[in-house]
Specification:
alpha/beta, seven-stranded mixed β-sheet
Length: about 230
């Protein structure tokens, strides 16, 4: 965990550029915030908040009477997010360095996961825990993975190379299992877990099919449907 935290910390500057400047990515973030079905006064936690690119949309949705908690395990990313929070003067936006698999919050109205599932060994179990956290509310998963569209092979080659060099340890250029197959399996497991738990589900593909957004509205009973 420490090695991974250090690794992703070194990528904070590049991630911040991609998170804010990549074409059409802002539309995905708006859609994710809308899918959470937040109301003023609600409490929402974002797991994998990174440099804070989603925070403005979440803060706008819950208003000054609500609460936004951003969780990330990478200090350099959180430092950039904190600069945004301080600059905007958001007293009700809190940032915590923690493991997304063990969120330091309880009984929230909504959970947003941002590009975390691909790092998890057991994403289905973790999504189940997130659903318990937001019982009676909503969970939205946003992840990047291989495109399943007809032109996917043209996109997935560069994505495979990027995933290989951006997965710790970077000194390892070959893996026994194809990195995109592993990523795809993890995303499928996590998103399918939400589908099983949710009373109502919506799914969208964005950015040429390389970003998957699944939102689920949960009933009020933790563990129901698992």
């Amino acid at each position: 965990m420490a090695a991974a935290r250090e690794f992703y910390g070194r990528w904070a500057t590049l991630y911040d550029y991609v998170a804010r400047g990549f074409p059409r990515v802002a539309r995905v973030r708006r859609r994710a915030a809308a899918a959470l079905e937040l109301s003023p006064g609600d409490r929402v936690v974002e797991l994998g908040c990174g440099t804070g690119a989603n925070l403005p949309y979440l803060r706008e949705a819950v208003g000054p009477s609500g609460e936004v908690v951003g969780v990330d395990f990478t200090r350099p990313s959180l430092e950039r997010a904190r600069q945004l929070v301080d600059r905007r003067g958001w007293a009700n936006v809190h940032l915590v360095q923690a493991d997304a698999t063990r969120p330091p919050v309880a009984e929230v109205d909504a959970v947003l996961e941002s590009f975390v599932l691909g790092m998890l060994d057991d994403p289905a179990a973790v999504v189940d825990a997130w659903c318990d956290l937001a019982a009676g509310g909503t969970v939205v998963l946003v992840d990047a993975g291989p495109s399943r569209r007809s032109y996917g092979p043209l996109l997935n080659g560069p994505l495979r190379a990027f995933t290989t060099v951006s997965t710790p340890p970077t000194t390892k250029l070959r893996y026994e299992e194809d990195v995109l197959d592993r990523l795809d399996a993890r995303l499928a497991a996590g998103h399918d877990a939400l589908r099983r738990r949710a009373a109502a589900v919506a799914h969208e593909d964005h950015l040429l099919g390389m970003v998957r957004l699944t939102g689920g509205r949960l009933d009020g009973d933790p563990g129901e449907g698992s």
